[in-house]
């Protein structure tokens, strides 16, 4: 049933990357499976507990990594010539924007995390130096 759901999604939103991912997209999926997914429970613990300033650096690394991968994916959606693909990809600007809108939250949430870690005074480290 899950493969049918994936097939329906790929057909409805003209997303061939889900059925026949390019090699670079597969590399991003491995990064997600082995780097990003293990980060989720750690981050959930830190954010739910509150007051965990140690999450700042891992959250910055996570959010910049995810944002970087999403820029490549979004650029591929906007500029790739899908007419040469075996599977139907977005052809019109409207279809590209619809597919882009599906991937866009995966960029916005890491950017919000990054903004929070960099600008929120709670997460800013104030280095204390010893006086001699």
Automatic annotation (TrEMBL):
Q: What is this protein called?
A: Sigma intracellular receptor 2
Instruction: State the source organism's domain of life.
Output: Eukaryota
| Family, as annotated | Belongs to the TMEM97/sigma-2 receptor family.
Query: Which part of the chain is the EXPERA domain?
Result: 1-114
Where are the bilayer-spanning segments? 27-48, 60-79, 99-123
Query: Keyword set for this entry?
Result: Endoplasmic reticulum, Membrane, Transmembrane, Transmembrane helix
Whether Transport counts among this entry's keywords is no
Tell me where the signal peptide lies.
none
* Any Gene Ontology CC annotation: rough endoplasmic reticulum membrane
Q: Does the keyword Transport apply?
A: no
Query: Which species does this protein come from?
Result: Climacteris rufus
Q: How does it sit in the membrane?
A: Multi-pass membrane protein
Q: Where can this protein be found? A: Rough endoplasmic reticulum membrane
Principal subcellular localization:
endoplasmic reticulum
């Amino acid at each position: 049933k899950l493969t049918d759901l994936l097939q329906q999604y790929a057909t409805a939103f003209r997303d061939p990357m889900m059925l026949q991912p390019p090699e670079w997209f597969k590399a991003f999926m491995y990064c997600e499976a082995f780097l990003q997914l293990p980060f989720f429970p750690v981050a959930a613990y830190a954010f739910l507990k509150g007051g965990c300033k140690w999450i700042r650096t891992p959250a910055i690394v996570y959010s910049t990594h995810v944002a970087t991968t999403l820029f490549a994916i979004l650029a591929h959606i906007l500029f790739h010539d899908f007419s040469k693909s075996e599977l139907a990809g977005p052809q019109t600007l409207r279809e590209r924007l619809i597919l882009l809108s599906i991937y866009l939250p995966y960029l916005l949430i890491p950017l919000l995390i990054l903004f929070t870690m960099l600008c929120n005074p709670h997460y800013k480290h104030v280095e204390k130096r010893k006086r001699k």
